[in-house]
Amino acid sequence: VVKSQWLPHTEALHLLPLSPYLRLLHFTSTSSDGVQINTYHTPSVCSRKVEVSDYVRYHYNGTLLDGTLFDSSHTRMRTYDTYVGIGWLIAGMDQGLLGMCVGERRIITMPPSLGYGENGDGSDIPGQASLVFDVVLLDLHNPRDGITVTNQVVPESCTRKTVSGDYVRYHYNGSLLDGTFFDSSYSRNRTYDTYVGRGYVIAGMDEGLIGVCIGERRTITIPPHLGYGEEGTGTKIPGSAVLVFDVHIIDFHNPTDNTEITVTFKPDECDRQTKKGDFVKYHYNASLMDGTSIDSTYNYGKTYNIVLGANQVVPGMEDGLMDMCVGERRHLVIPPHLGYGERGVTGEVPGSAVLVFDIELVEMEEGLPEGYMFIWNDEVSPDLFSEMDKNSDKEVEPSEFTDYIMRQVTEGKGRLAPGFDPYRIIDNMFSNQDRNGDGKITEAEFKLKADEAAAHDEL
Ligand SMILES: [Ca+2]
Ligand SMILES: [Ca+2]
Fold it and tell me: Which residues form the EF-hand domain (predicted)?
């Protein structure tokens, strides 16, 4: 019965030679009582084909054999989303979609027995109608799927891989399975930054970003139940969509990280190692983990000079310059909480960036003990006040005070903290002694201060 109703329609094809899909039907091997499948576009890549119990999203035009359109997902502007092969569809579609690739276009022709049978469906599909569906498959997954990681490019050197709780900065291009682009961090010209494994991102991404190396590239394919589910999100991610993220890991760190110090060159001779308070002169090359250069003292032809422990550089650099010999070279990896933090430096260091410094200690000047800005190398003169009071008017003026201290320094009897403006130090010393702030130090003021200092030393 089915066969006899099928055949007359085949004749009808010859009457409509210009219709493109009908022309294709000429080349179809006819199995007159089954589903006919004509693939007229095959995608270049097909990693997977529709199997029984898969969930698919597709567009279709449904026509009768004479070309009458009875239904189209295109006109509704939304895909048809369904399980395949488990009776959710008319039998002809349940069969006809099997083996299909994402991006494939095929014409599925079915006899009425595999469509809507004797009674048809509503007013559009008459009884005993053979049906022709022109289908393009957009999406495919199985509810049992996990994420898949493909196209991995792992850098040669990878000493560490992300674990849950790490903070990752990465770039991504996001697309649907059919290639439709939906989002890119590159378009915003900044990385996406997040903790991984902590539920801040969709479950599939949380999982796909575990075990990555800095510099690694990978494609993470995420089924909807690990993505945006049946609802989708925004205007670009439809419900039940599989998501494909091409990611590039820029850097990552853990909030518990310390500065990583690798000695790359150690001089044979090293009399003394740097300590807090030392004035150090060093060269550096600064870059990001992806190799982007930030700055280099070599460009300026002069060293960077700081006092260690005086908060003149980021904490990670303070760490990296400690216990170092002159001539020594080090490779430092500084996590953002010991660098420029979440804010970074506008135009130079992105927020939350891990920094890489290659440093070389060129010179050091020993600092003073903590809390001191001036110390005596020799015994203090018992008659300090009158030595300072050059014009013997029983008052020490600023110029007398400054001249005296500078002379002690020049003669090697005393020492000022290195790395600071000596005149500012001396000004502070003077103010300290000038108790009533009248710009002169009297003998009484001087003695009071000396007694306090002595008492302090005893403690
Ligand atoms: Ca005087
Ligand atoms: Ca005074």
Answer: 376-411, 421-456
